[in-house]
Amino acid sequence: MKNKINFILGLLLVASIAIGQNKVTDIGFEIQVYPTGIIPGIRAEKSIHKHGVGSIRLGYQIMDHQDFGIHDDEKGSGYGLTVGYKHYFQKYFTGLHLSLRTDAWYNTLDWKDNTDAGLVKGVTKILVLQPTVELGWTFPLSDNFMLVPAFAAGFEKNVYTEGEPTGEGLILLVGVTAAYRL
Fold first, then answer.
1. CA-based torsion, 65, 70, 71, 72: positive or negative
2. Ordered domains of the chain (ranges, CATH)
3. Cross-strand pairs, 112
């Protein structure tokens, strides 16, 4: 009987060590830039299986669409939330990864148009959904510190607009995350 108990305890110990090897939690600061804006944020990730993590980000978007939007000048900012899934191609949650992410942003934009009748100004509030695909690489700098450069491509869609329509469409982002691994 004692051997069976020791055997079961041994199996539980090995199983807990094996499971523990595949669990990570990363918390870090992320910054993404794109041709007309910048997005700083706080990002947290938690492993959900041996090659995948779920992620969440709280961010603040600062944009200057210039004349790339619908109006001659569009500037604004807003808060957002990102949820996503990241798949690692190597063990231990390092190296190459591919992510699917969706952002929801609540932005306020001040816009201007130079018309024949003169300068026209306005304010638009928008709710933006922004699904993206991200390709990146996680570099361990030590046992606990990670550096994660990444490139993302996606689409911005204004799903709710209060005021005049503003720019939306393809978005390309370059970013880096500095994270602490628990």
1. positive
2. 24-181 (2.40.160.20)
3. 73, 121
- Summarised one tens digit per residue, pLDDT across range 56-76 is 999 999 999 887 888 889 999
Residues 6 or more apart in contact with residue 46 via CB below 8 angstroms: 24, 25, 53, 54, 55
Question: 172 vs 46, 57, 106, 114, 134, CA distance in Å?
Answer: 25, 18, 19, 28, 10
Element (H, E) at 11: helix 2-21
Query: Could you tell me the pTM of the whole model?
Result: 0.83
> Mapping DSSP to helix (H, G, I), strand (E, B) and coil, where does residue 7 land?
helix
Which pLDDT tens digit goes with each residue over 5-51?
655 545 444 444 444 455 899 999 999 999 999 999 999 999 999 99
